[in-house]
């Protein structure tokens, strides 16, 4: 198992049985066509395209929403801090907000380019 996958990648199934008092937990590999609903954007994704919270594996996030949550956490942590890296992250966040505010990320030609760039930005 890839260390980045985490325990929530496996599907937990409860199987009843007479010998063990009627309950047994097994871990099975997810089906190829299994899908999960992102708890952030409410879209569904293949099970291999979502991540789960460690203590709450029932919560699934798509990669874009996980990236968004990470960025929000970093910006919150940066509040009150100073430095070149903090300043750079703030400038990038302001540029991102301006692009989204103008709806440029949804434009037919430049939108995919901007989203590609965004996936590689801090
Ligand atoms: Zn999502």
Element layout with pairings:
Layout: E1 11-15, E2 24-28, E3 35-37, E4 44-46, E5 50-52, E6 60-62, H1 63-78, H2 84-102, H3 110-119
Antiparallel strand pairs: 1-2, 3-4, 5-6
This protein binds zinc ion (ZN).
Beta-strand residue fraction? 15-25%
Strand element count: 6
**Cofactors, ions and other ligands in the entry:** zinc ion
Largest sheet: 2 strands, antiparallel
Shape: flat
Strand order, sheet with most strands: 1-2
Q: What class do helices, strands and sheet pairing give?
A: alpha+beta
Q: What's the overall average pLDDT, rounded?
A: 79
pLDDT below 50 for ≥5 consecutive residues: which ranges?
Answer: 1-26
Q: Helical element count?
A: 3
Determine the N-to-C terminus distance. 27 Å
Give the H and E element order. Answer: EEEEEEHHH
Number of domains: 2
What share of residues is helical?
A: 25-40%
Radius of gyration: 20 Å
Question: Explain this structure to me?
Answer:
With 122 residues, the protein is α+β, with helices and mostly antiparallel strands. It has two domains: 56 residues, no CATH class; 40 residues. It has a two-stranded antiparallel sheet. It has a two-stranded antiparallel ribbon with strand order 3-4. It is flat. The N terminus is likely disordered. The structure holds zinc ion (ZN). Zinc ion binds next to strand 6 and helix 1.
